[in-house]
Amino acid sequence: DFYAVSKASKKLVREAKANAWNAFINPIKEEQSVVSSLLIQLAESSSNKAAITTIANDLKDNAEPLRKDLFNAARKSLRLVRAESSEAKTLIGNWLHKEKQVNANRFSSHLYSDSAFSSLKVKEVLPEYQDAKEVDARVILRDNFDAIFAKMPEALIFGEDSGNIGDVNQGLEGLQEKYGELRVSDVGIREATILGQGIGLAMRGLRPIAEIQYLDYLLYAIQIMSDDLATLHYRTKGGQKAPLIIRTRGHRLEGIWHSGSPMGMIVNSLRGVNVLVPRDMTQAAGFYNTMLASDDPALIIECLNGYRLKEKMPVNLGEFKTPVGIPETTKEGSDITLVTYGSTWRLVMEAAKELESVGVSAEVIDVQSLIPFDVNHHIVDSISKTNRVLFIDEDVPGGATAYMMQKVLEEQKAYFHLDGEPRTLSAKAHRPAYGTDGDYFSKPSADDIFEVVYAMMNESSPSKYPSIY
Asked: Which of 116, 124, 228, 301 is geometrically suited to a Cys-Cys bond with 323, CB 3.0 to 4.6 A?
């Protein structure tokens, strides 16, 4: 009867609850016993016996310990014996080292894919050229998407104006007519829904490319990207994947709404998603090919002012791949390392060419991807040669230039190779002002880059590089 079923169900739930709790707490209690024993040994050989014994007893008496309690007791005790030497101290140090690795796997693993299809494992394939003619850069993107859709029936793209008109910069020109409205489609002005739709499609085995029309509009979708997409692989410990590609365009243009480059916000919100910043459309096309061979999600940001620039047409469309996490040195130099990405790269190259005329040999590095960032520490190798570095972009001060500086100076330990102050050059703290003059006075120009580099050289050798002003 109902009473019997209800009673049996409650008993089953209580038993399941008890079993789950025991499965959680018993391994911690075993670790508790080990640490308590080690602390008692440490106390016996220490001049701080009373204090360490108190810590050990408090830990031992804890009926429901957490791993935090074990670590806290061990680390606090080691601080008390920092000037002492003993076998127990060594054993506790070894235990902490081992368990830190165990807990790193328990709490901090699987932020990115480590499968055979990880984006870091996709090999570079260079673009190939045969009597290559120069075309508008957007044509390379269009024809590369055409090659992708032809060979991958599971690939599709959707976004604001992506379908009927072939996107606002004609990178999808004619593809809806060729592949149909289900695979190349328009959507409403609803960025959060675009992301949700893309995540769902990706989790179900399709290979969606969700287009956000402009980088500024990504702000409407950043919560979905950060909370849902960036955390999916991590919070399921690799159990679920959503290899969604988000396509957008941004950086430098003329106007307050379509010229943003909020890269600091993006890299600090989207750990767990590859953030790729190609300098031209050939690099961008290579990133699409790379990520479609991967099971990582990615944000690919095309240069908004680069679609009508001329680039050579590769013959291996759909096949060449731009590697993630690998910067490219686009100009060799010996006096200073200039680190940049995206639309700013062209200005840096322009400034570097003029700097040569005044005796400054600048090495230019395009980082290409912000996440992952320089996995082989290529940039520190450059700085070990030049002993100076300037990080340049068009984000606000303290944005992505600060992110790059931390990666290079702290993680790569480039600080030890510097002969002068490391510098950043970024846009102003406000949205870019309107028009050509607004762009010039809001974001770094080739003039700004030249003068900052020259001032750095003047600081080290005033006689060789006399002050401009």
From this structure: 124
